[in-house]
Amino acid sequence: MSPLISRLIRYTLLILVATVSFWFSPAPLTEHEYCGTYLHLNSFAGFTANCDGFEFMESARYPSRLLAPRAVRQSRPLYVLLGTSVGYPASWALRGLEAGGLLPSAVVAKLPAKYQPLLGFYIGYVLLNFGLLLGAMLLLRHLYYRLTAGRGQPLVLAALLVFPVSNQVTKAFFWTVHQQMFTLLVPLALLWLALQLRERARWRTALPILALLGGGLALLYGSFVLVLPVLLYGLWLKRPETSTPKLLEQALGLIILFTLPTLLWIGLLKLRGVAYYNHEAETYQQLVWLRGLWQQPLPSFLTQVGANLARFGATLPAIAPFLAATLVAGWWLRTAKPRQPPVPIELPGLLGLLGGFLAALGYYQERLTFALVPLLLLVVALALARRPPGRCGTVLLLAAALGWHVWQVLSYGPFS
């Protein structure tokens, strides 16, 4: 068996063990604590089907819904189309199983009526959740050994991998239809891209293509807009061989190419006589609240900034253990000698970029702030590579990871 296949099997088992165990977490006491439907698998196990999931599944079943005025998922058309591409094959497979008697009709009949025709699309979206989480784990492993210059220890990596698999995001959203698994994948993908741009000159020559691809990803999940500043960083790396006017011209070109997929999507909607609708911006004022800088008096805007920063700060206790571990790791990195492996500038840079983006978002939830955790784990990994914990320290780290998972399972909520 190849190392890659073996790794995929191990990571799959870890995902299944961790996420299935969440079925046995305490059920919500009232319906006011979650948005959606709590599905009871039996008297002591179940999970929440998020309220956003129904619209995602219906849109995947009928993609033409995206062309309707004020369609809720109109700003995420590629994610809906991904759901279509996996949902229909899963639905056909279910019909085959039912026809062959391998799937009793009574099982489907136990589902809420509105979910029964959407079961295949639900399975398809859960498979997407699995793929995104598996991708995040593989990226974390790659970056772990890359940043530690091969000095990383497998048992330390095993402990670190528990945290992206077991947390409030996977607990509430792995078994439902939602986009929250991107919370774990996007930060790692951004770091990987930034490292590629710095270390591989041919990647910097492909910036226009990357801008188009990144702009397409922004139609998949909103946080992919951060690909643009990463690409502009890659352009900045070309400054020794490119004049400043040329760099500015190329930066403008990258911005245009990055926005082109969204502009084309808006244009297609207009051809259909439909005005583009961004549910997140209109309902939650994501980022658009920053227009107040020139639309309202400065004192009023600064008051709003202070209120938003306080709301963002209120989400930080959810990742307090990781922030504390990172502070200790930062001190460790500053005092350890020799100073190897080095801390790449891209890691703290992306932590600052992502933190600033989350603070400016205008919509604050603990699950969104958890996007900082994958990068914080890599800071800890670098510190542990500089000062290896030894056998006793490694055992303690593994015990801490296991304790974290047990606490996640036994704790009440979150449910959405």
Structure commentary:
The chain has helices at 3-21, 51-61, 77-99, 105-109, 119-147, 154-165, 168-173, 182-199, 201-205, 207-217, 227-236, 244-271, 279-284, 292-295, 298-313, 320-335, 346-360, 366-369, 373-386, 390-410, and strands spanning 36-42, 45-50. A two-stranded antiparallel sheet has the order 1-2. The chain is mostly helical. Helix 2 (51-61) packs across helix 3. The mean pLDDT is 93. The chain has one domain. This is Glycosyltransferase RgtA/B/C/D-like domain-containing protein. Keywords: Membrane, Transmembrane, Transmembrane helix. The chain crosses the membrane at residues 7-25, 117-140, 147-166, 172-195, 207-231, 251-269, 368-385, 392-410.
By secondary-structure content and strand pairing, the structural class works out as mainly alpha
- Per DSSP, the total helix count is 20
What characterizes the major β-sheet?
2 strands, antiparallel
Oligomer: single chain
* End-to-end gap: 39 Å
Radius of gyration: 23 Å
Shape annotation:
globular
Strand content: under 5%
Order of adjacent strands in the largest pleated sheet = 1-2
Order of helices and strands: HEEHHHHHHHHHHHHHHHHHHH
Q: What is the number of E strands?
A: 2
Transmembrane segments: 7-25, 117-140, 147-166, 172-195, 207-231, 251-269, 368-385, 392-410
Protein name: Glycosyltransferase RgtA/B/C/D-like domain-containing protein
Keywords: Membrane, Transmembrane, Transmembrane helix
Organism: Hymenobacter psychrophilus
